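Summary for the steering committee. The consortium agreed at its last meeting that each partner would contribute one worked example illustrating the joint modelling workflow. Our contribution is presented below. We chose a case with several input lines so that the handling of multiple components could be demonstrated. No manual editing was applied between input and output; the record is shown as generated.
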Amino acid sequence: MKDNENKHFKKYRKLVNKIEQSTKVLEDIHSKHMMCKNGCDLCCIDFSIFPVEYYFILNELEKDEIKLELELNQKGNTCAFLKNHSCSIYNHRPIMCRTHGFPLIYVNDEDENELSACELNFTEFDYEDFTMENSLPQDKFNSKLFLLNREFIAGFTDKKYGEMDLIPLKDLAKHINQKKS
Ligand code: SF4
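What follows is the complete predicted structure of the assembly.
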């Protein structure tokens, strides 16, 4: 299992780096629109992640012995890692969180390109101006993550996870909290 983790965690880190490079470019392109700042937590809802992300983040947090005071009883569907309007695992946050705030292009159920952009950032912007060059191709990165996760879960001899299985972020927070107590 350790070899499986090492190999796939390396690939996951590479994917994160690629996404960070792309978002850096977008940050420069859209600098006058991007208002994301510490304290804005509208995107921080509880969601679920692939096992490869779950185990990667868990491994990073354990390695760094990060001390977390988690809000396990957040109201509504707020992410358990949100503390005083900030992300308590910011450096290790999931890929989806790294794309928050940027214009995202993806293919919808009708097979058409659809755009999603934060309305707090893009208050004055003609949606016609978004192109493949100035938006993040969400499907491209999601497919890479899906394939990487498929390879990763194949390494579990008990076939614990199926291809579409996701793990709630809340479970990661609970897991970390249990280990601390
Ligand atoms: S992990 Fe951090 S950035 Fe992602 S939703 Fe939770 S608090 Fe927000």
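Residues 2-29 form the longest helix (28 residues). The helical segments are 2-29, 51-63, 95-98, 138-153, 169-180.
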